[in-house]
Design a protein that fits this description.
The structure holds 2 protein chains of 2 kinds. Chain A is α/β, with parallel strands linked by helices. Chain A is built from 15 helices and 13 strands. By secondary structure, chain B is an all-alpha fold. Chain B starts with a helix and ends in a 6-residue tail after the last helix. The chains are: A alpha/beta, B mainly alpha.
Chain lengths: ~300, ~250
């Protein structure tokens, strides 16, 4: 768990981050959203002390981050930035091995870890280990950036607009991959973005920031149902909040017992997708099927609409 | 394997140079038409190969010193702590470049005496600027995301400099060294006015005795060395840069 206490950053007379306190849960993805200039990146960068706070403190699992030199702290915290920041003069394998080398791991252990990560990120080691970053596509570079941040098995991963430079299709894939990675390694992830859809898609908790202040930090559904103020309501998208709410629930969670005569949808599909499918096909109900091929029940349009209310 | 015309030209130039330095007398018929009243067509007051090597040695020692000082200074003024020294360093280095090497000789001879020393000082001062400026440009143009990532990974300031900034700046630094070396190969000939060993001796002897053949020999050998050195260093740079790709 990361505890942020009264964290403030001032540059001259400008207060960029203003007395922010939050308890970031362990083993989950927390997303910080805000417009540009909201101080979200500065807040993130104070966690690994790339920016030193003016006042307040950050505790990781109870230990103050200032209790050790900043560069040693950062070796325990993964960090991914927009535009990946890969070292252009080093191969993919060398890039991934950066932090393990700094930590003095043995060569055999580093090799094994690099190989494992390349596999996890669907990059064939034989083909890509010795390639240079400029030889990769944008999506591959981004994956190597995340692999490099995870190389030393950090418990915490900080990501600053990690998918901002990717086109929509690759971005969606990268978001899927991140959810998988989080489930696989159980990493505590703090991600900064200005894209509310991305925040809702990835975050188990979402923080909304504006001009240095933390307005609300809660589960996505709570943000939609009970926005703390007008700004949060506008950020979360007042016009389509019903649809957003539906996108947060899966068909499996909402399925009603019984059977019906209709198309089959996957239990992992969001209610928004199921509703869209039903509207498109002009049917009134659908069967919900688990990945194991066992029916979970059925869903009617009326039942879905019921779920879209606050 | 395809060999380019320019590579062939360079090889021929190198072979001609080596042949001339090993056996200058074989080239006597070529230079004879340039002499008058039966003057010797080939420089005969010293060994051309020895003079050439002496000049190269002077240039290399001066370049090594310039590199050491200019790169260290470039690193210093691009650190946060050394930023305030940038204007001062730039002024000093500029003076080194704008003060004519001949004037440096005139000033330093009374201090350190005749011989190699004043030449080394003049060349050292003259060669600082390109290396200094290129080092600064190389270090300042490192992609900011790469530096941010390096810091975020937990590299200390020294580690960032050694394993990220300097390797990325290396192509530009090498280019600066190459410029400095090539300029100084030519400039070094003036060292002969203060009794430093070098090809300037041949040129001066030619001017004094009105022997165009001597002047041409000193000039041509110096010029060929400068061109070949430039190409050789450029090839070396390309090897180093192959792995340093900016995207």
């Amino acid at each position: 768990m990361i505890t942020v206490e009264n964290l403030t950053k001032r540059y001259g007379i400008a207060t960029v981050v203003d007395a922010v306190s939050m308890a970031i849960p362990r083993n989950a993805i927390s997303v910080i959203v805000g417009t540009s200039g909201s101080g979200k990146s500065t807040l993130l960068r104070m966690i690994n002390r790339l920016v030193e706070p003016s006042s307040g403190r950050v505790l990781i699992d109870g230990a103050d981050t200032r209790s050790e030199p900043a560069h040693l702290l950062r070796r325990r915290i993964g960090y991914v930035i927009q535009g990946h920041g890969l070292f252009p003069h080093r191969t993919v394998a060398e890039n991934i091995a950066t932090v393990p080398r700094l930590l003095g791991w043995e060569d055999a252990r580093i090799r094994a870890r690099v190989e494992e990560l390349l596999q996890v990120f669907q990059l064939d080691p034989a083909k890509y280990a010795d390639a240079f970053p400029h030889q990769l596509s944008g999506g591959q570079q981004q994956r190597v950036g995340v692999a490099r941040a995870l190389a030393a098995e950090p418990a915490v991963l900080l990501m600053d607009e990690p998918f901002g430079a990717l086109d929509p299709i690759i971005r969606a894939k990268a978001q899927e991959d991140l959810l998988d990675i989080q489930r696989r390694f159980g990493t505590t992830i703090v991600l900064v973005t200005h894209d509310m859809d991305e925040a809702f898609r990835l975050g188990s908790h979402v923080a909304v920031m504006s001009v240095g202040k933390l307005l609300q930090f809660d589960r996505p559904a709570a943000l939609l149902r009970h926005p703390a103020d007008d700004f949060v309501a506008r950020m979360t998208g007042a016009s389509d909040r019903a649809m957003k709410l539906l996108s947060l629930m899966t068909a499996g969670e909402a399925a009603l017992p019984g059977v019906c005569d209709g198309p089959t949808v996957a239990a992992s599909a969001s209610l928004r997708d199921v509703l869209s499918e039903l509207l498109w096909s002009g049917r009134g109900a659908a069967m919900v099927m688990g990945e194991d091929g066992i029916a979970r029940g059925h869903l009617t349009v009326a039942a879905i609409l019921e779920r879209a209310r606050p | 394997m395809k060999i380019s015309t320019s590579a062939v030209l360079r090889l021929v130039a190198l072979l001609v140079l080596v042949a001339f330095l090993v056996s200058p007398q074989s080239f006597a018929p070529l230079f004879a038409p340039l002499t008058q009243y039966g003057a010797p067509p080939i420089y005969d007051q010293g060994n051309l190969a020895v003079l050439t090597l002496a000049q190269l040695a002077t240039v290399c020692v001066a370049a090594a010193a310039s590199t050491l000082v200019a790169v260290s200074l470039g690193i210093l003024v691009t650190r946060p702590a050394g930023k305030q020294f940038l204007p001062l360093s730039r002024t000093l280095v500029n003076i080194g470049q704008t003060f004519p090497p001949v004037a440096v000789l005139a000033v330093t001879v009374p201090l350190v005496g005749f011989g190699e020393k004043p030449t080394l000082i003049a060349l050292f001062a003259y060669g600082l600027l390109p290396i200094f400026e290129n080092t600064i440009t190389g270090l300042k143009t490192c992609p900011p995301q790469v530096l941010e990532a390096a810091a975020g990974m937990g590299m200390s300031a020294g580690q960032r400099l050694r394993s990220v900034e300097l390797p990325l700046a290396m192509p530009l630094i090498l280019e600066g060294i190459r410029l400095s070396l090539v300029i100084n190969v030519g400039t070094a000939t003036i060292g002969s006015t203060v009794a430093a060993k070098g090809l300037g001796e041949v040129i001066i002897a030619g001017l004094l005795s009105n022997n165009t053949a001597f002047v041409l020999q000193g000039g041509l050998v110096t010029g060929l060395i400068a061109v070949l050195l430039y190409d050789a260093l450029a090839a070396l740079e390309r090897r180093v840069c192959r792995s340093v790709q900016f995207d």
